[in-house]
Amino acid sequence: MKITVLVENNTSNPNCEAKHGLSLHIETTHHSILFDFGPDGSTLLKNADVLGVDLSNVDTAFLSHGHMDHGGGLNTFLEGNTNSMIYARPDAFSSHIIKVFEKDYAVGVEPSLTNHPQIVLTKSSQIIDEELQVFSSPCGNVLKPMFNNTLYAEKNGVMVEDDFSHEQSLLITEGETTVLVGGCAHGGIVNLLNRAEKLLGRPVDYVVSGFHLYDPPTKKTEPESRIDELAGELSKHSTGYFTCHCTGETAFNRLHSLLGEQIGTLSTGDVIEL
């Protein structure tokens, strides 16, 4: 399994553009997968070209959740790829906002895309084929990100605190290896990992996901005590972790000091083989 980071907050490749967001290209035995689309189409297209990824050959795509830093490039992807199905949660195209210093800012994905013929709305747990399975949040209450409390979603015409039912994670199994792929893990990375292992009936080999421990509008990181607690929970698993995007540098450095080589970080342009 080969994972190429097309869009992430930082870049290890000077020819690529870093943007706050996430997009991963994943090659498996049977699939060319795009997981998330970054904040805009131009960054997605530019970096894919630099990194030699032909987006027109993608056969399966996933939207992790309904925030623009993950779905802003979706429409551009659809313009260049008329064959791939895009799997998303039913609420992913509802209105979403973030409250910053008592002001509301829209952070949602283009709502009209919910009716696009290539969009497939997923169930709370759904097996797509022998390699791919998705499941949604919420699925537990262990160490959910504290910065979730600034995020709201429209339910029945009313903006309410987001329960992240529009978030989904992807399980990819290739041979003996299973990888859990997430966007921001708003549902809490420990909860997502526990849910994945319950579905599989065995440990997850690797996790690739943001952990949402950093809040860009306020430039705040979760308290060190919570990060230490998270490291303790993650260390209970034999899983290898690759984190990115909304984890933040301070939180990653603390996690790495506690977990060592069990955790690594990813930037735009990075390629890993699992």
From TrEMBL:
Origin: domain of life: Bacteria
Signal peptide positions are none
List the Pfam families: Lactamase_B
- All residue ranges annotated as the Metallo-beta-lactamase domain in the record: 26-82
The keyword ATP-binding appears for this protein: no
Q: Does the entry feature the keyword Endoplasmic reticulum, yes or no?
A: no
For this protein, the record's InterPro entries field holds: DHPS-like_MBL-fold, Metallo-B-lactamas, Metallo-beta-lactamase_dom, RibonucZ/Hydroxyglut_hydro
Matching Gene3D superfamilies, A to Z?
A: Ribonuclease Z/Hydroxyacylglutathione hydrolase-like
Annotated keywords? Hydrolase
Q: Which Gene Ontology terms cover its molecular function?
A: hydrolase activity; transferase activity
Quote the PANTHER family the UniProt record gives: METALLO-BETA-LACTAMASE SUPERFAMILY PROTEIN (PTHR13754), METALLO-BETA-LACTAMASE SUPERFAMILY PROTEIN (AFU_ORTHOLOGUE AFUA_3G07630) (PTHR13754:SF13)
Protein name per the record: MBL fold hydrolase
